Amino acid sequence: MTLEEKRNYMVQLEWDFFQQVQNEGGRADCQNTPHTFYIMRKSQFDAWPETLINCYLNDLKKAKAEGRNPVMEKYAWMMKDTAPQQFKNIYHLLPAVPEENQSIINQILQIQLTWMEEYKAAYPKVSSGNRAVKKEQAAAGNASFETYLWGELCTYSHQTLAVYLDYIKELTVARRNLVLLTMEYTVEKYGCRNLEEAEHFTS
């Protein structure tokens, strides 16, 4: 399987998991928009190196083999911030996140939050439609970038988290921003050459 095939396969696996997520208020609108889902998830994976792709793909395959739904688990973890009372009722059903994983997650979050703030400052028009950066900035019941990323990272294996952190550190040393890389891929899929062009044409 080529790297591109792996990335597309990961999006397909996640989409299949996403279709199985049950919401209290019924099916969510975003569960009926496969093209948008593809753009958002594929853009994230396009910015990842193959070592990280291989690790996360293994996580998805393992979850499927075990009958788990990591996308559902991600949204469940997010409820810790968005719906704390309901979260208390389902917390015991979620796979435990080892302390060593939590330490890596916190390190990744701190760097990613800084990167997201840099992106929003550099491209205020394009980023105006994005989530609030930090959980304390989000409206009640809404997931911030911090909450969303934290929820997703809670579903990653220790190996995937370790490879992710190594990649984050490599980018930091190279003075590169993963949020910007991801958003470059995103706007390209919407027809813009780069973020500068997207910013120019965003009203």
Secondary-structure content class = mainly alpha
Strand composition percent: under 5%
Computed Rg:
17 Å
Q: What oligomeric state do the depicted chains represent?
A: single chain
Amino- and carboxy-terminal Cα gap:
41 Å
Average pLDDT figure: 94
Short summary of the structure?
The chain is mainly α.
Structural commentary:
The protein is mainly α and 203 residues long. The chain is 67% helix and 0% strand. Helix 4 (70-82) crosses helix 5 (84-90).
Features:
203 residues, 67% helix, mainly alpha, 0% strand
SSE arrangement:
Elements (H helix, E strand, L loop, with lengths): L2 H17 L14 H13 L3 H17 L3 H13 L1 H7 L8 H24 L22 H9 L4 H16 L4 H12 L5 H7 L2
